[in-house]
Design goal:
Order of helices and strands: EEEEEEEEEEE
Strand content: over 45%
Number of helices: 0
Structural class: mainly beta
Oligomer: single chain
Helix content: under 10%
Largest sheet: 7 strands, mixed
Shape: globular
């Protein structure tokens, strides 16, 4: 079955870095657009990074541009989110998302907390 499993979250002080990882299975990973979203308590789920199937193009909203970098390894069915210069407002649960022609899937998320 389709499965997305996130890892790499944790507690980090302001200015710190984390690298999230998402392991995918059950679909043709190399043909899927992969994204990271985040959701804070009481807030909507927002897109923070997107990468096309071959990795040739990415998108970031203004709030994270220059600090976050999405990448993918199609040989190992993984997508990553490198987060640098983290801020308290980056605190949220981060979710991996896959989209392909016939559907999409979500992981269970990994918690990121930025606090001193």
């Amino acid at each position: 079955q389709v499965q997305l499993v996130e890892s790499g979250g944790g507690l980090v002080p302001p200015g710190g870095s984390l690298r999230l990882s998402c392991a995918a299975s059950g679909f043709t990973f190399s043909m899927a657009v992969m994204s990271w979203f985040r959701q804070a308590p009481g807030q909507e789920r927002d897109l923070v990074a997107r990468i096309v199937s071959d990795g040739s193009d990415t998108y970031y909203p203004t709030s994270v541009k220059g600090r976050f970098t999405i990448s993918r390894d199609n040989g190992n069915n993984r997508v990553y989110l490198q987060m640098n210069n983290l801020k308290p407002e980056d605190t949220a649960r981060y979710f991996c998302n896959a989209q392909w022609i016939r559907g999409d899937a979500w992981g269970q998320g990994t918690q990121v907390t930025v606090s001193s």
